[in-house]
Amino acid sequence: MDLDILQQNYRLPFLIEKNLAKYDGDFAHKWQAIRHNNHAGQAIQLAAGVLLLLCQRSDHVSDAGEPGAWVLQLIKRSSRVTQRGDVSCPGGMLHPLIDWAFGLFFIRSGFLSHSLLSVGSSLAKTASVNKNIISLFLANALRESWEELHLNPLHVSLLGALPTYSLHLFRRTIFPLVAIVRNDWTPIPNPEVDKIIEIPLTSFFREDSYGRYVIQASETLPSPDQGPWEFPCLIHEDDQGEEILWGATFYIIMNFLRIVFGFQLPDLRSRRIREKTLNPDYLTGNR
User: Fold this and answer.
1) Which of 89, 172, 241, 271: disulfide with 46, CB 3.0–4.6 Å?
2) pTM for the complete prediction?
3) Residue-wise over 202-225: b if at least 16 C-beta within 10 A, else e?
4) Which residues pair with residue 72 across a beta bridge?
5) Which domains does the chain have, with CATH numbers?
């Protein structure tokens, strides 16, 4: 792939929007399945909208030999919340009544990206259903991002939707949306966020960025299987140290790279290994 496009302010958003518009999204199917199962009295499955935020950083470089101008803006979860220490997308749990109201406002105001309903897009085939559900989770993700980071919704431009991702440990399904955020916004993290992490998009196209994450449950964590389990990960290094991107957020970003750029994860058998032990507060937080 020609990485020059990753430093071009005007071309990359059009490429992302164009390729995401071709993707046959599963928001409607997954949301309807969750509602059906919850109403049928099965174990409650929660839903959460998140934003995969891209930002243009002309002064942000991962090393002197590459541009690294486009970055993904992620958060590191604080010790107050579940999955403490994980790197994730901003967003959070759906509140249907509140988020439906905000979603209707987005539809009527024309806030939704026109590409989501463009002629030829698979979403156009079921336009009204998908438009409502996408607006629901956009409202959800924006509301939560305002609470977590004080992100102004007017500073965000939606580019499209990604495949949903279901977590089994927390019985939660994530509905990810890709958006561009203004480069002059200033995050104001709340206590649920430890810090903002910016990873250059070019890092995801370097094979030496990847590794294997070996995770084991501590003896105090009630689990029928203590592990270890192994997951692919991205090892990000900056002037504040090393961060490990793995799990749901890793797979969401891999889907983004696959759909937009045709990227495939490299062979990880000989890659660096990092290790982690999960303690009980990983599941509960320290509120």
Assistant:
1) 172
2) 0.89
3) bbbbeeebbbbbbbbbeeebeeee
4) 54, 199
5) 3-206 (3.90.79.10)
